[in-house]
Amino acid sequence: MRDFLIIGGGVIGMLTTLQLADAGHTVTLVERGTCGQEASWAGGGIVSPLYPWRYSGPISRLSRWSEGVYPSLSLRLLEETGIDPEYRQKGLLYLSVKDEREALCWAREMGKPLEQVDSDFLYAKEPHVAPGIEQALWMPTLGSVRNPRLVQALRARLAAMKQVSLHEQCAVQGFQRQGTRISGVVTPEGVIQGGQVVVCGGAWVASLLAELEVTLPVRPVKGQMIAYQTPPGFVNRVILKDGRYVIPRGDGLVLAGSTLEETGFEKSTDDAALMALRQSAEAIVPELAECKVAHQWAGLRPGSPDELPFIGAVPGWENLHVNAGHFRNGLVLAPAATHLLVDQLLGREPLVDPAPYQLTSARLAGKPESA
Fold it and tell me: Are residues 214 and 365 in contact, defined by beta-carbon separation less than 8 angstroms?
């Protein structure tokens, strides 16, 4: 039996596994499909909440810490695996921000570079942006990562670590219990045991925990995205307008997203979303209309009632823990959210106050903690 058993191989599960293995522990990671192929793969890879000043303090504390981790994490994974997660710190341009004053006040309070820039600055940075924009907000420190390559690199690193055992295409069918302890999980490969159990099941976490009569208010929220193939350098920075964005990759691929759809676990794409995504992307960069849409896809975000993740021990169980419900910010929060839980698992000083993320009775009932 290994020290830890992690259920779910998205970015949250893989980073939890990596940190525990780095600390010298043995870890088993169980994933029902292939590691990193659900929401972690499907997102855009912006290393910040879209409008960070609109989020609560607990989200800001995690995202700020995570943002500083991605450059070194990407370099580490490139060195160890030869797979480049393509971290790019090119900044973000915000167009048509209605609450600009609140944004600038937030930036001053957080010590975050954010400034109002004029049209000369905007078009010098991004000449293909729609004409006629007189001003924008500029956040120079924002970065993005090519998330499909990030999860590929994480999986390769874990597969090479002797203290890690990966079980893919291995769905958890139930839990083996001994009183108030989880002694193992039932899978097609048999019972897999672990000393401490961490559930990182993304949008599927509620159905996993329902087996234990634990009600976790996490639901799937579909997001569709598209990608244009453009010449390299056609767009160089993340550009955001009215909640929609374009995200460039180094090879000229430009992602555009995304929708928010309450459709359960259905992941199909459709022409209506394609049209809406094209319309918003081409309102930001009109010349994208002349480029080919190379891909359209959908993923399922794990939505939570207060948009805060659930991080911590599950009440009533001695060795069961959860890290789930990150909604649109799973990749953004992953380094800090996993570090916070690993701190608690190993008895270390917590990265931040863990209280806002805990599985209290109010939060499990789907209510804000203050209600």
Answer: no
Q: Are 282 and 313 within 8 A, CB to CB?
A: no
Residue 313 φ/ψ, nearest 5 degrees: -70, 150
Closest listed residue to residue 90, CA positions, set 48, 120, 151: 48
Instruction: Report helix, strand or coil for 361.
Output: helix
pLDDT, tens only, 205-234: 999 999 999 999 999 999 999 999 999 999
Peptide bond into 258 cis (omega under 30): yes
Matching residue, tokens 């000369």:
120
Compute the distance between CA of residue 341 and CA of residue 354 in angstroms, rounded to an integer.
8
| Domains detected in the chain | 3-53+148-218+305-365 (3.50.50.60), 92-140+220-303 (3.30.9.10)
Measured at the CA of 279, the angle between CA 278 and CA 282, to 5 degrees, comes to 80
Q: Please compute the mean of the pLDDT values over residues 124-149 and round it to a whole number.
A: 96
Please, are residues 238 and 95 in contact by the beta-carbon 8 Å criterion? no
pLDDT of residue 30: 98
CA separation for the pair 323, 321 (Å, rounded):
7
Strand pairing report for 164-167 and 27-30? parallel
Picking from 318, 84, 293, the residue whose alpha carbon sits closest to that of residue 182 is 318
3-class SS at 178? Answer: strand
Q: What is the pTM of this model?
A: 0.95
**Phi then psi dihedrals of residue 342, to 5 deg:** -65, -35
Q: Are residues 135 and 103 in contact, defined by beta-carbon separation less than 8 angstroms?
A: no
Look at residues 41, 328, 345, 321 and name the one whose alpha carbon lies nearest to residue 208. Answer: 321
* Spatial distance between the Cα atoms of 248 and 237, rounded to a whole number of angstroms: 6
Cβ proximity of 255 and 223 under 8 Å: no
Least Cα distance to 237 among 112, 88, 369 occurs for 88
State how far the Cα of 367 lies from the Cα of 123, in Å rounded to an integer: 45
